[in-house]
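Hi everyone,

Forwarding the result from last night's run.
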Amino acid sequence: MKKYGWIIGILAVMNIVLLGIVWFGKPPHSGGQELTKFVEQNLKFTAEQSKQYDVLIGEHRKRIQEINEQTKEAKQAFFQLIAVPADTAKEKALTEQLAKLAIEKEMVTLNHFRKVRNSICTAEQKVLLDKLIDQVLERMSPQNHPPRPLQGIGGDPQAPPPPPRF
């Protein structure tokens, strides 16, 4: 019996660690702040530039959230069409709306970085941003976000809320 005591002790510790992971989960998603710091550090922004950058980021995020909400609504309307007879005119209109929203989202992001480059960056920082932009866009990519948990019809009240998407 004595030799099983240490095995039981290890199992008890593993259970406590596992319960801690389940109860407390991962820390909140901070990808936006990490990306902000990444840009600020790599471009070596001054305190004043960081303040200006924060304002531009706030404007960008607000507009992207608006577009994401419009996209969500358009997708819901589009996929509600499965329950009704085919209506190619309505399908075409909704797919065109989705395409316009996708284009608008990309244009908002392009114009955001143009503003950062042209209104905040020095000549040296512009060169750095031009080299860094691919890495920034990769970090902004939705593929870098964890998938949202499936919650079933009506959602599961016990499930944590899904992480925000930016």
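The first helix runs from residue 2 to 24.

Cheers,
N.
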